Amino acid sequence: MNISFYKYQGTGNDFIMIDDRAGTFPMDKERIAHLCHRRFGIGADGLILLQNDEAYDFRMKYFNADGGEGSMCGNGGRATVRFAHDLGVIGDQTRFIAVDGEHEALVTSEQISLKMSNVKGLEEHPDYAYMNTGSPHVVAFKENLQDFKVYQEGYAIRYSDEWVKRGGTNVNFVEQQGDQQLFVRTYERGVEDETYSCGTGVTACALTAHVKLGMESPIKIKVLGGNLEVSFEQTSADAFENIYLIGPAERVFEGTVEV
Ligand SMILES: N[C@@H](CCC[C@H](N)C(=O)O)C(=O)O
């Protein structure tokens, strides 16, 4: 059968977006991986279904590029809000449900401001920090990040015995570039490559930079695909609330594909 799809991107993290309010999309791992393949398919870091939900404006169901259902995707959340707005499903404010629970968002023509899940349990290790911002993230500070081997080093951590045992992780490398500015590069689990941006990843980096370097909210973050901002409130030594991921998200093209 042929289905309509839309392609969206948020700071270069790109997604196939499907209006699945009828609930008819055939959710099959191989099919989703094929659609996301950059040579044989449409090409994307992930595929997202916008579905109906009784209690919320919509449900966001996110799959990584390998076809497996992912944990929360921050940029995907922002792109799904833009998609829902473009479809006329929502106005300029929304409350929706995703794999990690309820989210709120505000829409302007330039930006989507997405409220992220509260964070509890920041682990501080000598060489890195770890936290779950809806998805699991290792955060390691590096100098001269532009020239750093993100794929090789990220892969080594992601597939180390410890992280395989713990269910896998995304890996973020971060460099401070001013009082309120970070530069972040991310190796993404489920894409198994460096992506141009990772929303839950930059959120983890901002919270880590606050704890380790004393950087205050809001923190601006440069990624390969553009610029994001993260604001937050720290409520105890390892807990954060009112976390917002703010940045652009837009439709790139649309089409039909046989599934
Ligand atoms: N790109 C995402 C992160 C997606 C989740 C991740 N790949 C996983 O399942 O671990 C983002 O913007 O947050």
Automatic annotation (TrEMBL):
GO BP term (any one): lysine biosynthetic process via diaminopimelate
Subunit structure, as described in the record: Homodimer.
GO molecular function, one term: diaminopimelate epimerase activity
Described function: Catalyzes the stereoinversion of LL-2,6-diaminopimelate (L,L-DAP) to meso-diaminopimelate (meso-DAP), a precursor of L-lysine and an essential component of the bacterial peptidoglycan.
Cytoplasm listed as a keyword: yes
Residues bound to substrate: N13, N64, G74, N75, N170, E188, R189, G199, T200
Compartments, record wording: Cytoplasm
Site description Could be important to modulate the pK values of the two catalytic cysteine residues, residues in chain: H137, E188
Family: Belongs to the diaminopimelate epimerase family.
Pfam families: DAP_epimerase
Pathway assignment: Amino-acid biosynthesis; L-lysine biosynthesis via DAP pathway; DL-2,6-diaminopimelate from LL-2,6-diaminopimelate: step 1/1
Catalytic activity as recorded in UniProt: (2S,6S)-2,6-diaminopimelate = meso-2,6-diaminopimelate
Lineage: Bacteria, Pseudomonadati, Bacteroidota, Cytophagia, Cytophagales
InterPro entries noted in UniProt: DAP_epimerase_AS (IPR018510), DAP_epimerase_DapF (IPR001653)
Protein's name in the database: Diaminopimelate epimerase
